[in-house]
Amino acid sequence: MQVKKSTKWSALALSSLSTALGAALSTTLLTAAPVQTVHAEAACAAAWSATQVYTAGNQASENGTNYVANWWTQGNDPATNNGGAGSGQPWTSQGACGGSPTPTPTPTPTPTPTPTPTPTPTPTPAPSGFVFSPYKDISVSVNWNTDVMQTAVTGSTLPLVGSGSFYSTQEPNLGAITLAFATGTCGSENWAGISASGFIAGNISALNSAGLNYVVSTGGQAGTFSCGSASSFESFIASYYTAHMVGVDFDIEGGQSQAEIQQLVADAAAAQSEYPNLRFSFTIATLGASDGSYGGVNSLGDEVVRAVLASSPALKNYTINLMTMDYGGTSAANCVVVNGACEMGQSAIQAAQNLEHTYGIPASHIELTPMIGQNDSQGEITTLADVDTITNYATANGLAGVHFWSLDRDTPCAAGSASATCNSYPSVGVLGFTNEFLKDLGK
């Protein structure tokens, strides 16, 4: 930014009179040269660092030029990654810099205080209402005789909650779980072949007694969920409701018509008056395009987002939960490419920013759900460093939550294709991803 000082022009008119009587009066006009305009260069911001995280509005300088960050960025050189609004670049040039900052007045000397130990840095606190709840594929390790959810993620099969359970012995700081998936029509839904009544009897009271919050998730990749009326949906909620139920998730990946999607949105809006503390998440597939196109959700996702936006202001307690996984190809049209691969942490952030840009969805209504370890798309691997990137961005920017697919996969196995019972990422220990999320969240 250039600061222009005031410009002044001065003129002096001097006359010279002849001293000789009768001589003609002669006048000589002398004009002084104008004072030149001075353009003061802005002071250079702190030098750009490849390892520092910059968020929207942060400034950095490089080679005598100031830049301002357009959004969260790390490692993107502003000299080669800058452009104006709509360019898709993380930086905007602010022009040449070089002026010195205004000197800071010398403070009055004061007695040196007794030094105190520097506190250990703590993670950025999650915003109020933030939810971290790994998805639990209830069909994995379930006790088919009692319909009780179990997991063998630690190597031993344990009930999810209860005495001597996974939650009580392994992850007492977990806080919440997302139950996946109820499919079919509300009122006659089933859970991977288990009847609604059987699933409820085997699990819901136990979750409540254990103090573990839960989200009831519907639909999914292999199923659909629909509900014909607001009253039917409220009855659906009532059958699962306890003080520890925190939300309903509509995982919409295919099969629902536009009318069914609009009905689900209307059902959620109507249920808010009866269940004001519940959140309603709409989980959809996404890309993380970094080519400036802001490419993200597919046509089905577009229908979902537009239906949610059209319900405003009736539907307030909603989130758009982006499945930041399986981008399907290493190109800037699909993801953020680093060293010839989709960088999963940065791609998740890009997906959130694309959703904000394209639809105006605020960060407080966005959630992110990566797939830990090996994704279904070969070459796409979500690492612990990606977990750090995603979680730190989510908490620093006021997102509504983070989740992952899935709890039963949080155990290592040999690299290869994606598995339902391990993460095909041998360098991470048992529950390594869950504990990394919890660490980043200060749990």
Automatic annotation (TrEMBL):
Q: Where is the composition biased (Polar residues)?
A: 69-82
Q: In what residue span(s) does the Chitin-binding type-3 domain sit?
A: 45-94
Q: Which Gene3D superfamilies match?
A: Carbohydrate-binding module superfamily 5/12, Glycosidases
Any signal peptide, and if so, which residues? 1-32
Give the matching InterPro entries.
Answer: CBM5/12, CBM_sf_5/12, GH, GH18_Chitinase
Question: Which Pfam families does this chain map to?
Answer: CBM_5_12
**Keyword annotations of the record:** Hydrolase, Signal
Asked if the record carries the keyword Flavoprotein, the reply is no
Q: Where is the composition biased (Pro residues)?
A: 102-126
Asked whether the keyword NAD is assigned, the reply is no
Q: Spell out the residue ranges making up region: Disordered.
A: 69-130
CDD domains for this protein: ChiC_BD (cd12215)
Spell out the protein name for this chain.
Carbohydrate-binding protein
Q: Which organism is it from?
A: Dyella acidiphila
